[in-house]
């Protein structure tokens, strides 16, 4: 049976989740790295998935008006064909379509995601490799298409990119925003769709992982119910602030800031692994 998680660990990891969920730097990768380097063990995929419910609650509240309008527009378009060209109706379908790849792959590879994919060699490598993808998207993306110009093809491509985030170290927002930039979307348009697209997948993943989170794990840190609740609440509060900050940041700043951070962190983790300071599993 794994070691019991302390309150300090729960608070720190909840804060890490809130800080990193919406930035293109991989929240699951950061939780794995922080829990290993500072606490000597893995918080586990279930802890990650459950605390993500806090950050997704932040998305639901921050975009409550948008979400309500999209849902209303989607139902209106279902029954009234003249409204099917409306952005809200189309956005409803784009979120549904974009969620399919991560749902299918997450179900098929759920065991690998919870085990082998959490290897720190893989996470550190993906931090660096995907930093180069983000840099290429920033460099080659035209960044001229507003959110009103979204099409079904964009939803499929960005949804497929979101599925890459099943690998810790890639980043859900990093994958979808990069795909959006390659498609010519503005940073703000890509980020907004990225947040909306994440809601169904992350909420489903968190709810699916709730039973496992309360079961004692064979290895890793075991969080109690109250610790999970507090960590999720902290992730919510910090995550809400992170959304507002990122949407303002991407208007006037490039993604290269995150590229540099990812590469530096990846190199540090690879160095710690190579010298035996931390364990990969």
From TrEMBL:
Domain of life: Bacteria
Classification via Pfam families: BacA
Example GO biological process: peptidoglycan biosynthetic process
Single GO molecular function: undecaprenyl-diphosphatase activity
Keyword Transmembrane part of the UniProt annotation: yes
Keyword Zinc-finger found: no
This enzyme's EC code(s): 3.6.1.27
Membrane topology: Multi-pass membrane protein
Subcellular location: Cell membrane
Keywords: Antibiotic resistance, Cell membrane, Cell shape, Cell wall biogenesis/degradation, Hydrolase, Membrane, Peptidoglycan synthesis, Transmembrane, Transmembrane helix
InterPro entries xref list: UppP (IPR003824)
Catalysis performed (reactions): di-trans,octa-cis-undecaprenyl diphosphate + H2O = di-trans,octa-cis-undecaprenyl phosphate + phosphate + H(+)
Transmembrane portions of the chain: 91-109, 121-141, 161-183, 190-208, 228-247, 259-280
Cellular component, GO, one term: plasma membrane
Described function: Catalyzes the dephosphorylation of undecaprenyl diphosphate (UPP). Confers resistance to bacitracin.
Further comment: Bacitracin is thought to be involved in the inhibition of peptidoglycan synthesis by sequestering undecaprenyl diphosphate, thereby reducing the pool of lipid carrier available.
Family: Belongs to the UppP family.
UniProt protein name: Undecaprenyl-diphosphatase
Gene name per UniProt: uppP
């Amino acid at each position: 049976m794994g070691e019991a998680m302390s309150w300090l660990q729960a608070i720190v990891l909840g804060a890490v989740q809130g800080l990193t969920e919406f930035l293109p730097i991989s929240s699951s990768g950061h939780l794995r790295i922080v829990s290993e380097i500072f606490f000597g063990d893995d918080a586990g995929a279930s802890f990650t998935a459950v605390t993500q419910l806090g950050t997704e609650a932040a998305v639901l509240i921050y975009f409550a008006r948008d979400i309500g309008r999209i849902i209303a527009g989607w139902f209106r378009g279902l029954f009234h064909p003249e409204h099917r060209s409306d952005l809200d109706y189309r956005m409803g379908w784009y979120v549904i379509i974009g969620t399919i790849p991560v749902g299918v792959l997450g179900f098929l590879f759920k065991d690998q995601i919870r085990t082998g994919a959490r290897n720190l060699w893989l996470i550190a490598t993906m931090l660096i490799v995907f930093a180069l993808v983000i840099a290429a998207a920033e460099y080659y993306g035209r960044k001229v298409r507003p959110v009103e110009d979204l099409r079904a093809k964009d939803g499929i491509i960005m949804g497929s990119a979101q599925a890459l985030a099943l690998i810790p170290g890639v980043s859900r927002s990093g994958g979808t925003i990069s795909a959006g930039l390659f498609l010519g979307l503005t940073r703000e348009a890509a980020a907004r769709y990225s947040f909306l697209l994440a809601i169904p997948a992350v909420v489903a993943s968190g709810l699916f992982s709730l039973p496992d989170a309360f079961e004692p794990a064979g290895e890793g840190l075991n969080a109690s119910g109250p610790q999970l609740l507090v960590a999720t609440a902290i992730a919510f509060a910090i995550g809400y602030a992170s959304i507002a900050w990122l949407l303002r940041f991407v208007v006037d700043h490039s993604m290269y800031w995150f590229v540099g951070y990812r590469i530096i962190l990846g190199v540090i983790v690879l160095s710690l692994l190579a010298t035996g300071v931390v364990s990969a599993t």
